[in-house]
Structures are given as C-alpha cells and as structure tokens.
Amino acid sequence: xQPTLSFEQAPPISVPYRxxxxxxxxxxxxxxxxxxxxxxxxxxxxxxGALAMTHLIxxxxxxxxxxxxxxxxxxxxxxxxxxxxxxxxxxxxxxxxAGAVFLASAFLLEQQLLFLAAALAFAAALGLFLxxxxxxxxxxxxxxxxxxxxxLAVFGLLVTVVLGVTLAATLGLHENLQSVWSLLTLINVHVxxxxxGWALMLVIGVSYLVVPMFQLxxxxxxxxxxxxxxxxxxxxxxxxxxxxxxLGEAQAWQAGVLCAGMLxxxxxxxxxxxxxxxxxxxxxxxxLVFWRGAxxxxxxxxxxxxxxxxxxxxxxxxxxxxxxxxxxLPGLFLSVIMGMLYKIMPFLNWLHLQQQGGTVTTQPNMKxxxxxxxxxGQMRLHFAALALLLAAVVWPALALPAGLTFAASCLWLEWNxxxxxxxxxxxxxxxxxxxxxxxxxxQS
Length: 444
Fold this sequence. Notes:
The chain is mainly alpha-helical. Helix content is 78%, strand content 0%. It contains 13 helices and no strands. The radius of gyration is 22 Å and the shape is globular.
C-alpha cells in the first residue's frame, strides 16, 4: 500500500530551500579544488585533494539536499508530524555547512584542530536531525515499503555518523586505533554504510514512490521491494563483521560480500531501467534522463567492482577506487539529486503559492518555474563533466578541464535553482499585495 500524500503537513518552504540552495556551491568548490590541485588530486583515494573533494560532495552537496528533502518528504509522504521544522533547519543547516568546511579544510591543510571542529559540528547537527527524523518516522501511522526503507536509511545515516565522527575525532587527536580496529577497516565500514546504508537506501526508498508517480512507470515488483533493503542490510551487516578482531584480514570473504552488494545494486539499476522503458509517456523529461544516467552509472559501478574483484591486479591500482568513486558520486547520486531538484522545486513553488491563495492573481504553472532549455543545458554539462572526470582518472592531465566543467555544471544548477526561488518570491509578493488591495477595497 502506498502512503497517502499529506500536503497540509508540508513545512515552510524556507526549510528545504536553505539546504537546496547551498548544496550546489560546494559541488562547485569540489570542482575548483580538482582544477587547482590538478593531477596530484588523482594520485589515489588517499590524496588530500581526493579526500577533500569527496567530502565536499558527500557531506555538503548530497547530505544537504538529502536532509532538506527528508524534512519535506517525511512530512508529506509519511504524514509525520516533524517537531518544529523551521528551528531544526535553522540549527542543522549552518552546522552541517560549517562541518563540511572544517572537514575539507582539514584534509587540505592537515590541521588536527579542524578535524575536531568538524566532528563536533556533525555530532551536534546530525544528532538533532536524526533524533527528530527517528521520532517522526516511528510515530507516523503511514505504512508501506517506502516508509520502511526510509527508516532503514535513517538508521544507516546514524551508523555512518557514529563511524565518521569517530574517525574525525581520531584524526584530530592523533590517537591510534590499532589496539581495537585498524584505521583502514574503520574507513571501509564507514564508506559502505555512508554510500550503501544511507545514500543508496534513501534513493531506493524514494524511488519506490517517485519513479512510478513522476515517471509514469509500472510499480516495482513486490518481491524486489522486499529483497533490496533486506539484502542490502544483510550485506552491510556482514561487511561490518571485519570490525571484529581476527576477521579484518580475511580478504576472501570480504570480496564475496562486496560482490553480493554489487549484484544487488546492479539488480536495482537494471530493474529501474526496465520500468522506465515501460513508461506510459514517450517524451523523456529532464528528470527521467537524469535518473537513467544515474542508473547506468550504478550499473557501470557494479560491473566495474565485479571486474576489479575478478582481476585483482586491476582492482589494486591506486586509481581504481577513484573510478568507482566518480561513478558513485557524480554519476549515481548527484544525477538523481539534480533530477529530483528540478522536480521538487517547481512543485514546492506551486504548492506554497496555492496555499497562500494563488487564485487572487495569475501564477506560472510548474513547467514555467525553471525554463526547460536551462535544465537541459545544465544536464548536458553535468554528463559532459562526468565523462571528463572518468577520463581524468585514466589520464590525470585532464584534471583541469574536468574540474572546471564540473564546477560550471554545479554553478549552472545553482543559477537555475535561485531563479526558481526568486520566481516564487515574486509571485508570493504579488499574491500578498493583491490580497491586501482587495481587503482595503472591501473595508472602504
């Protein structure tokens, strides 16, 4: 059973918009870091530039949009009563932003105090956010697999935050974890939960609702909706066993668990592409193309990981993890996020204008909120940047054009989103002025 949409539960439009309008700027910052550092940023996954870029994308692009979306999505889709959403956003948004700046700067400058500052900022911001989300999702009367998977995603974020704060505090204090866990083991588990247990789980949960609704496809098969979250959770649990003493060095079983996770991801991508091929509307909108690109990236990621497992000499190359990282971050997650932003912001504009009494004056429809030409231009630039980033992993001399193109794509996205927000503000003011004028005429 699909959850009932509760539009009256939607938080003020300023709650998600502050997250949405901040996020692309940090994607642009990641691109500029790559352009500035050049090939040195692509030496390996451990290069300071690579770590800084990764966290700029993961923490302050992806996390910003996902937090803003959840505050909206949980209220509308789950009908949940979120505790004081404006206050939560006011506290969480600047703390996440500051934490991301501290963390990226810590990797680039190798300053211990910045790691500690990042750990404190994230612990405070996400501790509050997770508490509010958990209470809301546990109390909601809504049922369905989408709600169940959202709860699992919030749990995945909790595990990711605990491991990430532990890592940042360890780097800040220069303490040695070797007596309990190796630093590499903790990083591997942190990455798995962050990308699989939080980001991918959230994409899966959201797709159960938005792919059939917005893209006019058949619903996901019931067996698949149950298999994916359960299988992913099982894989992550098995992967986390390497934290136990004596299991961290067992490479064979870890490779088997990794392959199982990649097979699940590949099945999800293939199923989504198959559903999209059966959609009722033939014309492909921007959001659909972004989703297709994301699923193709996920399929390429799964196949690449399986190839690296089958050919260890290839998988052990220093830049192999960077190849997987580009497919996962700009390829999969940012493509989904960009596509959804182009659907969410016009809808929120329309919804909140209607709630303010939009019949008083003429207002644009959803297709006029962001020009189609601007969205398609930005989309093409994003996929061009993705191709250049993949090429730069193989030929690091392309780091400069790849970084600049990616930064330009993120700035174009920001321009489009700001334009939508300004359009909303303009028509909101017209509605208020028209209502005030009508009231004055009545009184006179």
